TrEMBL record:
Domain (Peptidase S9 prolyl oligopeptidase catalytic): residue spans on this chain: 481-698
GO MF term set: serine-type endopeptidase activity
Matching Gene3D superfamilies: alpha/beta hydrolase, Prolyl oligopeptidase, N-terminal domain
Cited Pfam families: Peptidase_S9, Peptidase_S9_N
Region (Disordered): 1-27
Species the sequence originates in: Nitratireductor pacificus pht-3B
Protein name: Oligopeptidase B
Family classification: Belongs to the peptidase S9A family.
């Protein structure tokens, strides 16, 4: 039945159909909205004003239609944004992290939209402001800070910014004695760089014409960027490169990778003129990354069929594959996520039975212990450390009911010191909420974890509305962490749930493999199974579930809308990757070649073509009743281009068999991440939540 929440007398934009025919592997397809893809999309990323007039007119019409259908929620949106803002400590700062004579930190000023970076003397004292994001953003419609890294001698700050949303970052060098930036800015970079050992220059990755980080350069401070020396050039368009460094400032790591394979070169940080030295040649499916440990490298790798990864060591003098020795052997079902080396300890973050764990290992003896936690579902994070000769580990903990806590942990004495608890200025009592972890049976028998939170005392009789969030791609696990924004729904009687579907790594690497390429459909059926399990357990009912996902999670939204529209009362698709087949057939787009290992290559493989064509949301729009849908996009998004949701929305209106509205909003001043300021982002979330409340009939309820 059509939703009664929206007026029916407002006409939706109906763009002109201009069919373009494409034939691949003997299969002919027609795309009536291909014209929405701007031929000069690379130029649009750099200068949005050059967008074709007809395309801009259509996007503006869509924005006007969305605004009109949501006009009756404008006051609600303001209330929601104010609520969410009231839960944010406006002058929030991080716990300073020590490095030599200083301790470095970041945070915000009251009312500020953008971060500021500062330092204090190591043992406390007067704050020295290094970078003020609000000042740098003045006069710009969009602004996002990239990396901010001080030089080893503490005299300079390398920092990046993007003022288009297109993720083309400019790097600047700030003289910390004067507070002024030098003239030699470097443009079109990935957003960060790595200092050499003496702070005489830095290494950085430069983006090519197709927006791919494909080359690493070295820039001497004060030199002409046009004369920067090429360090590494990746010739395979399917591989991205990045550059990083070791904590001891001894090594520069140059890594090339796609989603399945990696290759690393090392350069002595004290000799930036040295040629990169290969550690292990790329081998399809072999992944590894380095962590310096004094005279050895610790290497996190899946070599030798270690599907859930293991840790090996290799001498820095010759870290070739032949010299790798197991330190932490592979254990099926225990996925090692990351490793940090200190002088006396080796720390790893791993996931087992769907939950994260921190394991501390004494390097000399090999003895290990786990840092224990009590809640049923929670999130952990290792904080970076500038220092190597320390026994102190910093980590964070939160759950869906517990605000984030930051601890220092003495790895020798096992003493845990609470440094900071996330403040919720408007007030928050964890005892008012319940967090649960459920297991939903998938059609093939797999058990899919669901993390959820709701108010204590909520009637579990199927009457509660539910926001069900999902992603399920690239092996990314969705943490069961504290989220102040979702309290605006939970406090209105919602169940807020996260579906840990296949395609992520919540249950190990095999959980990821079972949700990619030819098995991608498992991600979709898992999500639908989670919705049905929540209904079966009395948490909600199908007409009161709103599904939400972004980017690859937006593709999930498009797929489940096609497969089981009756299972959802509404759908929110943020920057949705819904035109999968056309995008994977376009090897000029920034992410396409590196994404082939994730989705398949339909250009060369008929099997991959058929697999993607069978689920690609745009290609499978059907004449059945869709629930109300809200789609969001960013004009300068290089990851999921604006035309994907624009085409999808147009086809849903033309071919879909629903009287329910499809709303579409494009942020004409932003990219993949949406609005850049911390408070302006709340306005976008308020729109989303107002839509959720509107379609579930809870807009006036508290």
């Amino acid at each position: 039945m059509p939703s009664k929440a929206f007026p029916s007398n407002i006409a939706a934009p109906l763009p002109e159909a201009r069919p373009v025919t494409d034939t691949r592997h003997g299969v002919e397809r027609s795309d009536e909205y291909a014209w929405m893809r701007a031929d000069n999309w690379q130029e649009v990323l750099r200068d949005p004003s050059v967008l074709d007039g007809a395309i801009r007119t259509h996007l503006e019409a869509e924005n006007a239609y969305q605004a009109e259908l949501m006009r009756d929620t404008e006051a609600l949106q303001k209330d929601l944004a104010a609520e969410m803002r009231s839960r944010i400590k406006e002058d929030e700062t991080s716990v300073p992290s020590r490095d030599g004579p200083y301790a470095y930190a970041g945070g915000f000023r009251t009312g500020g939209e953008y971060p500021r970076f500062f330092r204090v003397p190591r043992d406390g004292g007067e704050e020295e402001l290094l970078l003020d994001g609000d000042r740098e953003a003045e006069g710009k419609s969009y602004f996002r800070l990239g990396g901010a890294d001080h030089s080893p001698d503490h005299s300079q700050l390398l920092w990046g910014h993007d003022d288009m949303g297109s993720e083309l970052y400019t790097l600047s060098i700030r003289d910390l004695a004067t507070g002024r930036d030098l003239d030699d800015t470097v443009t079109e970079t990935g957003g960060s760089g790595e200092w050499d050992a003496k702070g005489h220059g830095f290494f950085y990755a430069r983006l090519d014409a197709n927006h791919r980080p494909s080359s690493v350069f070295y820039h001497p401070v004060g030199a002409n960027p046009a004369e920067d020396r090429l360090i590494y050039d990746e010739t395979d368009p399917g591989f991205f490169v990045n550059v990083s460094g070791s904590r001891l400032h001894d090594w520069i790591y140059v890594s090339a990778h796609d989603h399945e394979t990696s290759e690393c070169h090392v350069i002595p940080a004290g000799d930036p003129s040295a040629a990169p030295r290969l550690v292990a040649a790329r081998e399809a499916g072999l992944q590894y990354e380095l962590e310096e440990g004094g005279d050895v490298f610790f290497i996190l790798t899946n070599a030798d069929d270690a599907k859930d990864f293991k840790i090996v060591s290799a001498p820095v003098a010759d870290p070739a594959r032949a010299n790798w020795k197991d330190v932490v052997p592979h254990e099926p079902g225990r996925l090692i996520l990351s490793v940090m080396a200190f002088a006396r300890f080796l720390v790893r973050l791993e996931r087992k039975d769907g939950l994260p764990r921190i394991i501390v290992r004494e390097r000399a003896s090999g003895d290990e212990h786990m840092i224990a936690f009590d809640e049923e579902a929670y999130s952990l994070g290792l904080h970076g450390s500038y220092e190597y000769e320390t026994d102190t580990l910093r980590f964070s903990y939160s759950s869906m009911t517990t605000p984030e806590q930051v601890f220092d942990y003495d790895m020798g004495t096992r003493e845990r010191t609470l440094l900071k608890t996330q403040e919720v200025p408007s007030g928050h009592n964890p005892e008012d909420y319940v967090t649960r972890r459920l297991m939903a049976p998938a059609p093939d028998g797999a058990l899919v974890p669901i993390s959820l939170v709701h108010r204590r005392g909520l009637a579990l009789d199927g009457s509660a509305p539910c926001l069900l969030y999902g992603y399920g791609a690239y092996g990314m696990a969705m943490p069961a962490s504290f989220n102040t924004n979702c309290l605006s729904l939970v406090d209105r009687g919602f169940v807020y749930a996260i579906a840990h579907i296949r395609g992520g790594k919540e249950k190990g690497y095999a959980w990821y493999e079972d949700g990619k390429r030819e098995k991608k459909v498992n991600s979709f059926t898992d999500f639908i199974a989670c919705a049905r399990h929540l209904v079966a357990e009395g948490y909600t009912s199908h007409d009161r579930i709103v599904a939400e996902g972004g980017s690859a999670g937006g593709m999930l939204m498009g797929a489940v809308a096609n497969l089981a529209p009756e299972a959802f009362g509404g759908i929110v698709a943020a920057v949705p990757f819904v035109d999968v087949l056309n995008t994977m057939l376009d090897d000029t787009l920034p992410l396409t070649p590196p994404e082939w290992p994730e989705w398949g290559n339909p250009i060369t493989s008929k099997e991959d073509y058929d697999t993607i064509a069978a689920y690609s949301p745009y290609d499978n729009v059907a004449a059945h009743p869709y629930p109300p849908i809200l789609a969001l996009a960013g004009l300068t998004d290089p990851r999921v281009t604006y035309w994907e949701p624009a085409k999808w929305v147009a086809r849903l209106r033309a071919l879909g068999g629903s009287d329910n509205p499809v709303l579409f909003k494009t942020n004409l001043d932003a990219g993949h991440a949406g609005a850049s300021g911390r408070f302006s982002r709340l306005d976008e979330k308020a729109l989303t939540y107002a839509f959720v409340l509107k379609v579930t009939g809870k807009r006036d309820s508290r």
